[in-house]
Amino acid sequence: MVTVNRKAHFNAAHRLYRKDWSDEKNEAVFGKCNNPNYHGHNYELIVSVTGNIDPETGFVVDVKVLKDLIKSEIEDAFDHKNLNVEVAEFNELNPTAENIAVVIWNKLRPHIATDKKLEVTLYETPRNFVSYSGA
Ligand code: NI
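YS: structure for the whole thing
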């Protein structure tokens, strides 16, 4: 099995908070990320597809197809957006790096062949990143 990785990037704003918590509890748990005026991150995304090499093409997946898929499903939906306000998936879901990675995986999975494994790695900062592979 071989893994093909494609890097992508988007800038987005978010705020971490729960409506059902007090201001004090939101501040205690989410700290700076609870800023009511939102704040931005430069998200770096790595999409990894693992599978057998197609003997005819020599590809596991066509990187051009993967690139276009990430653009249409993720970058066009998230880039330069306020995730809480403008992206429906986060209307009721806290846009933590963990939840963003799961949402990205769920958006891409239907477009990847079922015999391939999909993993998403999302960097919220150069030092903080999460991975999700569907389980
Ligand atoms: Ni943040």
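YS: worth flagging: The helical segments are 23-30, 63-78, 83-86, 97-108.
IM: good catch. Also The longest helix spans residues 63-78.
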